[in-house]
Design goal:
Blueprint: H1 3-18, H2 25-40, H3 47-67, H4 75-92, H5 96-112, H6 121-129, H7 134-158, H8 178-188
Length: 190
């Protein structure tokens, strides 16, 4: 997440709620997910905090549903789903099938957003013709690398194949990670 961008989303959502205007539900989902995590992992974990975290989580889920994020994916919806899948569900429900379902959804949304091709030759050529926000580009790279490295980590621990992401299928060329990518490829080929 890019803190100044999230802060801008928060201020926009707040002013739209205050003015009773149409919200960007993906932005609302991300903000409510952050609130959920903040309350849930606060220093005092009592019944009231758990209830508040649950309420924020329900609002986040409702906002994701209202955003129709499967048909109209956005970076904010993807980040919200990642946070829910990585930090909320394991601590609240621990439901393995739900976590696997969310992991598949995360990869599907990331691919729909083109994150698996973010640094491909074709994408680089296309960017030369358009003004691209460097912050959005970097956030996209980091989200993709988070998803890829999480899957690689899981694969390396269970030593089984995966139908999700594969090292050979990645078209992300990130110079700083070539050594890491080689290491991961060697682990996966064992």
């Amino acid at each position: 997440m890019h803190v100044p961008t999230v802060r801008d989303h928060f201020e926009t959502v707040y002013s739209k709620v205050e003015g009773q205007k149409q919200l960007n539900y993906s932005h609302l989902a991300l903000i409510c997910t952050i609130f959920t995590l903040s309350v849930y992992f606060s220093t005092t974990i009592d019944q009231e905090n758990r209830r508040d975290a649950s309420n924020w989580g329900i609002i986040a889920q409702d906002a994701l549903s209202a955003s129709d994020c499967i048909k109209k994916p956005s970076m904010e919806a993807l980040q919200s789903i990642i946070l829910i899948g990585m930090h909320i569900l394991p601590n609240v429900t621990g439901s393995a099938w739900m976590l696997r379902n969310l992991a598949g959804t995360e990869i599907q949304l990331a691919r729909a957003l083109g994150l698996d091709q973010i640094d491909s030759t074709a994408a680089n050529r296309k960017r030369e013709c358009y003004n691209v926000d460097p912050v959005e580009l970097e956030v996209g790279r980091r989200v993709w690398w988070h998803l890829a490295s999480t899957e690689w980590y899981i694969i390396s621990h269970i030593r089984q194949g995966s139908a999700g992401l594969t090292a050979l299928g990645l078209c992300v060329l990130f110079q700083a990670f070539h050594g890491l990518a080689d290491l991961i490829c060697s682990i996966l080929s064992r």
